[in-house]
Q: What sequence folds into this?
């Protein structure tokens, strides 16, 4: 991986999103929760996209979700990922509602949709802990 | 008569070029502007309303520098509504509203780009943490990923297949083979499409639109001005707009805001899907067309795969002829924005000026639909119902 090019793609850590990244470093998925309407949101935002309230707390959430969709990238769109193709992406619906795009830690050749997954936190190529997902033992 | 009937489309022009390494972006805007006003029987001095997107070159983005470049000195109304590839469809609607309100009487709408031989618009750059998909760029996700995720989910929920998506490209390629300016000239088969290299599984290279330089322009005028010209006017019968945004991370990629913009346009026009003879549907990817046709009500949600089979989209005799110029999938997608070419081909169809092999007989009502932004996120939709003067 081209670490310099990859680092360019990483979101800047700001005072507003710091709790999310602190959570990743601590191995915990943390989302903002609106103090007025109670909805969780992702990514972070200064106001609630549902009720526009500015009051919110950061909470550790379950870290569980299901695979809503996935795809495998074959085209080299980013210099950082030129050596990684083909690589798989998953779109995970968190138990709290919001969807997150990321990768699977144990990339199965063909993930099953609606399969349960759990958030795991691993250092990326630049050494920052990021959220990825691991397939849960299939309850069925 | 509804408010839209105060204005008609009277001029349309698509740049014949698809690779324009020696032309500047501003030059292409000016060439298509001249083409469209000449088609209308007007000159640039007649223009008093000017519309273009934020992708126009120059000062601050929007209309300023291009108005300067083209010497538009008589402007009384300007609008740079930015809605991605759908922008020109918003511009025609907004021009009609401005004309109805007496703010201008000759509106020029231009779009130009040169992603093939020039600088790619947008792309890369540092991620803004407040955006779900840009936040995901460090995972290697880009625009095409959202379309691939949408296609995968559509396949899972509704049983849609790659072969069904391929039928959309096949129809576009058949149409392009009648268009001497089309970027792709070869008729493709379903097998050709599904055996083309994967770009973002389940989407193949042939599921994607072409990357072309070029542009187009449209002229919208008041009824009074149209009466002084010797050109067949095209009615703007109805229009609708809608946005479907990230919604705190709760997004469903299997439908588009066409579910809202479509009914608004049909209601204003007083027609229904059964009345539509031809559709220009935004076709950044095959899945874009499939979801939009469902969302506009041409078939039940989830039935799009079956709907597009057996040549349903192939002109002139398919059930619903679409994008008869070859569309973005095979003809032209200048600036990575397909809005202007969608309007232009609908105008050709309604005037009976489409390429002879794909002219829909007695084409009286055409639907134009544009989709701006990623599929399902920060997505903007505009639907327009256009009609032949007799309609």
A:
């Amino acid at each position: 991986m081209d670490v310099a090019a990859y680092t360019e793609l990483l979101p800047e850590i700001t005072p507003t999103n710091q709790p999310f990244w602190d959570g990743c470093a601590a191995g915990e998925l943390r989302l903002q929760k609106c103090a007025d309407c109670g909805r969780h949101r992702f990514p972070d935002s200064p106001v609630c996209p549902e009720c526009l309230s500015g009051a919110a707390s950061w909470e550790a959430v379950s870290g569980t979700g299901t695979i809503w969709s996935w795809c495998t990238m074959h085209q080299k769109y980013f210099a950082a990922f030129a050596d990684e193709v083909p690589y798989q992406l998953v779109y995970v619906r968190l138990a709290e509602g919001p969807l997150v795009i990321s990768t699977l830690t144990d990339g199965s050749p063909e993930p099953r949709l609606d399969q349960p997954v759990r958030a795991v936190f691993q250092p990326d190529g630049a050494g920052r802990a990021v959220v990825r997902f691991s397939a849960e033992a299939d309850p069925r | 008569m509804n408010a839209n009937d105060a204005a008609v489309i009277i001029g349309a022009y698509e740049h014949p070029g698809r690779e324009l390494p020696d032309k500047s972006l501003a030059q292409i805007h000016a060439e298509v502007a001249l083409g469209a006003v000449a088609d209308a029987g007007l000159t640039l001095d007649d223009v008093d309303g000017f519309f273009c997107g934020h992708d126009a070159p120059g000062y601050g983005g929007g209309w300023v520098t291009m108005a300067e470049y083209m010497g538009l000195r008589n402007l009384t109304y300007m609008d740079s509504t930015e809605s991605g590839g759908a922008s020109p469809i918003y511009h025609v609607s907004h021009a009609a509203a401005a004309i109805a309100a007496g703010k201008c009487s000759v509106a020029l709408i231009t779009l130009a780009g040169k992603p093939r031989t020039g600088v790619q618009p947008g792309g890369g750059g540092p991620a803004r943490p407040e955006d779900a998909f840009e936040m995901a760029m460090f995972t290697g996700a880009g625009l095409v990923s959202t379309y691939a995720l949408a296609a995968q989910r559509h396949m899972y929920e509704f049983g849609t297949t790659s072969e069904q998506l391929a039928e959309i490209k096949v129809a576009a390629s058949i149409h392009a083979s009648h268009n001497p300016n089309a970027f792709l000239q070869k008729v493709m088969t379903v097998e050709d499409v599904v055996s083309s290299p994967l770009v973002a599984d389940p989407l193949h290279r042939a599921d994607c639109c072409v990357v072309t330089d070029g542009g187009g322009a449209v002229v919208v005028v008041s009824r009074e001005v149209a009466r002084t010209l010797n050109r067949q006017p095209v009615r703007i019968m109805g229009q609708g707009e809608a946005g479907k945004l990230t919604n705190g991370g709760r997004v469903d990629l299997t439908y588009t805001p066409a579910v809202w913009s479509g009914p608004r346009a049909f209601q204003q026009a007083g027609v229904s899907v059964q009345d539509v003879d031809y559709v220009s549907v935004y076709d950044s990817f095959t899945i874009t067309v499939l979801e939009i046709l469902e969302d506009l009500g041409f078939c039940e949600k989830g039935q799009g795969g079956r709907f597009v089979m057996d040549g349903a989209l192939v002109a002139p005799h398919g059930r619903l002829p679409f994008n008869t110029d070859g569309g973005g999938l095979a003809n032209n997608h200048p600036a990575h924005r397909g809005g202007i070419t969608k309007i232009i081909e609908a105008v050709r169809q309604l005037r009976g000026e489409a390429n002879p092999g794909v002219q829909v007989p007695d084409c009286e009502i055409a639907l134009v639909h544009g989709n701006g932004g990623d599929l399902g996120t920060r997505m903007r939709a505009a639907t327009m119902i256009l009609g032949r003067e007799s309609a």
